[in-house]
Amino acid sequence: MAGAVPPASTNPWLALQAGVDPAERVGVVRRAHEAFVRSGAVGGPVRGVVTESWRRSARAGVDPDTVGAPVDLTDADLEEYRAAHPLSAVVPVLREVLGGAYAAGDQIMAVSDAAGRLLWVEGHLGALRRAEMMNFVAGAWWDEPHIGTNAPGTALAVDHAVQIFASEHFSRAAQAWTCSAAPIHDPATGRLLGAVDITGGDQVANPHSLALVRAAARLAETYLAQYPPAAGPAVNLTALGRDEATVTGNGRRLVLSRRHSEIVALLACHPDGLTGDQLGLELYGDELNPVTLRAELSRLRAILGPHVLGSRPYRLRVAVDTDFGTVSRLLAAGALREALAAYRGPLLPGSQAPGVAAVRSRLEHELRASVLAAGDVSILDAWARTPSGSDDLVVWEALADRLPAGSPRRALASARVRDLMVDYGLLGGPGHLHATSLQRRRR
């Protein structure tokens, strides 16, 4: 969560400090922006939060002459997504807090999801019509990678309330506007849910507007803490140590195909959903075939039901508890023995999907590092008995060092160390250790 706001005179998140002439500031920053677009160098007094955002925008390949943000949710798809989003419960609260500001002036209120997609955009009719010219509309992507520096996108990127003034916007089409935005978090988990934004003219560039959106975001979080959205029927995904995951819930138990197992596991790791391209890269890497992916998703939706698998973006619409998520939570809580007991083997061990392989590798690395850091004989022994630890030379060495002299288990561990050294080419002959062995051991 963001800390306390410093005084306005030193507030780096505020666009205009006291006494600064807005027109002069627009010119200074516009010249700095033009120089950055030409050379990549930032000159002049540009705020650090803006400088870093320009750099992220440039690295993402954003064209500063982009006329409008891409729109990927409309009509029924937009309504379906908004209805299922946790922030739908607090939009009336945000309207009550911010409605006076945008009703009395030429301003707009916008609410986005955590990915930067605008879900609600409402306010002064004239401002809405002008904003439509740059696709500042519900269903449009206003994250930094799509449209560059802007208050809702940058607030999400840095997880802090921020104000973006006129020519500080990376896209020239947005430089007629000034906006203040603040992130909103799930009060129970701290997970980022989205952002609330006020957009208008130069009048938005004041401490009051920034304080107002911060207050609105905090009030939304307070409301969610008191009235959490009702959860849908939960399902359980079991995917450790098996290539075909099982889904249980609502009185059913399903064994999924290997590809469907990968899809459900990946979506469980991305509760806010994935676009078709994102999911395709996680599944197929550079060999993405959109037609094949759509066919797999269509079959999976028929199996799970539309109430479980949503689209635009692809996501699981019910709470999902996974066995690999349980291991991660136990590790984070310091319950290493319980995490080891819950670890039934690698996540979908036969999967070559890049996204699955990354999650599998990360979980195993975290578990192994915790085992070695603990140095406890029983914990080392438990890990050595798993498929992941059976060939782990470093773990077997640590185990052999710590077991009591003369114990049968120590003799077995020492024999296993010798066998692994031979297998890994660390022993050139009986009792001979290569000089490079320590460099070649698994770390």
Automatic annotation (TrEMBL):
Superkingdom of origin: Bacteria
Pfam families, per the entry: GAF (PF01590)
InterPro entries named among the record's database cross-references: GAF (IPR003018), GAF-like_dom_sf (IPR029016), OmpR/PhoB-type_DNA-bd (IPR001867)
Keyword DNA-binding applies: yes
Keywords, ordered alphabetically: DNA-binding
Ranges for domain OmpR/PhoB-type: 251-316
Protein name as it appears in the record: Transcriptional regulator
